[in-house]
Each structure stands twice: as C-alpha cells, then as structure tokens.
Amino acid sequence: MDLGLADKKALVLASSQGLGLAVATALVGEGAHVVISGRSEDKLAEQAKELNAKGPGKADFVVADLSDRNAAADLYAGAKAKLGRVDILVNNTGGPPPGTTTLPDADTWRSYFDTMILRVIEITNLCLPDMQAKGWGRVLTIASSGVQQPIPNLAMSNTLRSSLVGWSKSLASEVGKDGITSNMQLPGRIHTARLDQLDSGNAERSGRTIDEVRAQNFAAIPVGRYGRTEEFGELAAFLVSERASYVNGSVIRCDGGATQGI
C-alpha cells in the first residue's frame, strides 16, 4: 500500500530515541522529509545521519528542550527553516517519574504540565496555519495506554496525559473541515529504554529479577510479548498518511490487547 507520504513534511517531537525515533524512521522509510528533535545535538546528528543513509526520505534535526518556555516557538521556527512548511506533526514527550498521586509536590506537577501538555498545545497551534493553508494536515499525539486503564505507580503520567484526550478530540472537531485530522496513539508495553527503566525499578521495589517482572508482564498481554518499536512506528505512519483521511478524533491503542476495556 502506498501511504502517500512521499515529500510530506513532518515534525516529530522527542525523537532522538524510543517511540519518537520509531515514528520518524517509519516516515523517512515512506519518503517523507522529517525533522527530528530532542535535547542532545550529538544524538540527533547521529540519528539523522543514520536515517538519511537508509532513505528514501530525508531527515534533519532541531535541538529543543520542551521544558524551556520558548521551546515551541524555537522548535517551529527551526522546523520551518528546514522544511518550508509542516504537513504532519507528531506530538511526543518524555514521561514523568514514577510515583503515586501524593508523591509529587505542586511545583513538580506544574513543571510536567508545562512540558507534557502546554508545549504540545503551543507547537500544534503554531503548525496549524501551515496545514490550513494547504488544506491538508495531520496531528498525531502519542500518550499512553494509562489514559484508558491507569497504570499503577505512574499517577502523574495517567493524570497529565489524560488531559490530552479531551484536547485532541476537541481539535479534531474544529479542524476536520480544513482537511486536517487529529488522532491519538496509545502505546502499551513497547520495548524501549523507558520500559527497561520501569521494569528495573519494579524489580528493585519488589525484590524480584527483571526476568520475573517481564514474565508477569507478558502473561498480562494477550499476544504474550512486548511490542516492537517498528510496529508502533508503522501504525503511526498509517495514521498520518493519505490513506487515513477518514480517521479523525480517534484514540488508537497499540498494546497487544493488554488494555482491559472495549
């Protein structure tokens, strides 16, 4: 299937590694011109070089720290300079530290709200005029399966990311007439460095080995394993493609069937 992504211009947030990089890799593989972003210039330069070597699309990068108040404006300006316009925006942010609802203080809640929620809204609002001018655009926001089934000891993530569901759905209703779609993609247990970190922490707290923790996790996933980053990236590529033009306002899980809900 030709996804119709050749020569599309895409900005992918937090994409020097993990899920963001998986999405960028899939888009470049479909012929898109992609700007990846993150805090480490060295890591971004290395990943862009590897993406360009694979092709057939093209990769550039912009250094951005989403905790900076000016990050959205700087990121959009950098992407615009590299791409000329933004057709596709993939919103992605790092997650907050594990913990219960009572663990963080108010300042910590505010800090992560700014980074994970406010910055996403700001950069989307900056990119929308490009999409509206062309009459075509895609906004895909990556969150977590915790917005549908709260994940134990990830209270901040469950809470903050849930606010993006209402925002994304509201956006879909507002911009659908402009040829723009807004959807969310929810990863379950996709095997990334972040998941390794969570498994290690769980093992330490429970006095078990990482293998024992993973065996328990696998048992709770109908397909019996963690997801591969390639699987996540390829689903994202479809959702931002020409072929998904009638998918709007949706929340799509990529979790192997783990979420116990309909």
UniProtKB/TrEMBL annotation:
InterPro entries tied to this protein: NAD(P)-bd_dom_sf, SDR, SDR_fam
One Pfam family it belongs to: adh_short_C2
Family membership: Belongs to the short-chain dehydrogenases/reductases (SDR) family.
Name of the protein this chain belongs to: 3-oxoacyl-ACP reductase
Source organism per UniProt: Maritalea porphyrae
